[in-house]
Write a structure and sequence with these properties.
CATH topology: Purple Acid Phosphatase, chain A, domain 2
Radius of gyration: 19 Å
Number of domains: 1
Structural class: alpha/beta
Number of helices: 6
Largest sheet: 8 strands, mixed
């Protein structure tokens, strides 16, 4: 960590405005120091050009509902806009404005709509990698989270630079990891899929996107491995990984089809294999959180019915047009450590 980062974190800590990335105990407003709750949301608001904006007005009530719940922190799992709207700079500043309204720390994980899909004509024909760099230089330039009371985060890369968006923190007896694993096949462009009437992307740009995917996938897997190592070393009872993409798990109810082998999901294969290996070697509970497909869901999809990975749970959060959130309760003494409540915001 650079000296300037250390100084900034020290100033915030001394002012009482900073929660440590490796805090041993939850905030004091929780009665039981071993229990805490936090919030998950993402994939909103979606505003499509030429159609009425029915969602932006719902974000305020959602934020107020989360603030009223007195959660320890909040995590946004990607997609600050729709996949058919412009990737202009104002979109990112608007999101920062929303994130800054949370009373507790608010951690942001990037999604595909704010960078991997920006090459599309209806997104403004941006260069994907330029938008990714803009996100890093705009939304990951601080050692702390968003929110009125920010929380210190570990970043995989230098602030504002390569892989700064991959973050990690510990709260209570749980390790949390945010990884840049977005939709649209994780930015992998397969042969023959580059040129499209919906995009002005060139083959050179597609090759650069694929090279970016390969390097970031390796970095993600390394950060994941290091996070499990930390969790084991500190005897953490749980580890949560938050990404944006729905990686396309196999559905056991479709016995003759393995959805993991379908086209357009190859970009997640190595990551899921690493996650499965690490989870199997970990004694605690593991939760993968994602958005992308907008259906609230809790299941255990890794492997199949015959060899269930018992300590693994997947949670998919609400998304447009359903502007709601998920409350996660953590009790280190419970069998599953994590429990989940869908929180339907009144009026939304």
């Amino acid at each position: 960590m650079k000296l300037a980062t250390v100084v900034a974190a020290s100033v915030l800590a001394s002012s009482g405005l900073l929660t440590s990335a490796w805090a041993d105990e939850p905030e004091r407003d929780h009665d039981d120091s071993r229990k805490f709750s936090f919030a998950l949301w993402g994939d909103m608001p979606y505003v499509t050009p030429g159609t009425p904006d029915t969602q932006s007005a719902k974000i305020g009530p959602l934020i107020a509902d989360i603030n009223a719940a007195h959660v320890a922190f909040t995590i946004f799992d990607g997609d600050i806009k729709s996949g058919s709207s412009l990737c202009e700079n104002g979109v990112y500043s608007t999101a920062i404005g929303y994130f800054s309204q949370f009373r507790a720390p608010m951690v942001y994980v990037p999604g595909d709509n704010e960078w991997t899909d920006c090459h599309r004509k209806n997104n403004g024909s941006y260069n994907n990698l330029e938008r990714l760099n803009y996100i890093r230089q705009t939304m990951f330039v601080s050692p702390v989270s968003f929110g009125k009371k920010p929380m210190a985060l570990e970043h995989q890369g230098p602030l504002g630079g390569l892989y700064a968006e991959n973050t990690r923190w510990k709260y209570g007896d749980v390790v949390f990891v945010g990884l840049n694993v977005p939709g649209s096949n994780n930015n992998l462009v397969k042969a023959g899929e580059c040129i499209s009437s919906k995009s002005v992307r060139t083959q050179i740009e597609c090759d650069a996107d694929t090279a970016e995917y390969l390097a970031r996938d390796r970095a993600n897997i390394q950060f994941l491995h290091d996070s499990f190592a930390k969790a084991r070393a500190e005897k953490a009872v749980g580890l949560m990984v938050v990404i944006q993409a729905d990686p396309g798990f196999d559905w056991p109810e479709t016995e003759t089809v393995d959805e993991r082998t379908l086209p357009g999901l190859e970009g997640y294969t190595a990551f899921l294999a690493a996650l499965a290996t690490e989870t199997a070697a970990y004694d605690g509970q593991v939760v993968l959180v994602h958005g992308d497909t907008h259906f609230f869901k809790i299941d255990k999809p890794l492997y199949g019915q015959a060899n269930l990975l018992r300590n693994f749970t997947r949670v998919e959060t609400f998304g447009s047009p359903n502007v709601h959130w998920v409350k996660v309760n953590v009790d280190p003494r419970s069998r599953n450590v994590f429990s989940f409540e869908p929180m339907i915001v009144p009026g939304n």
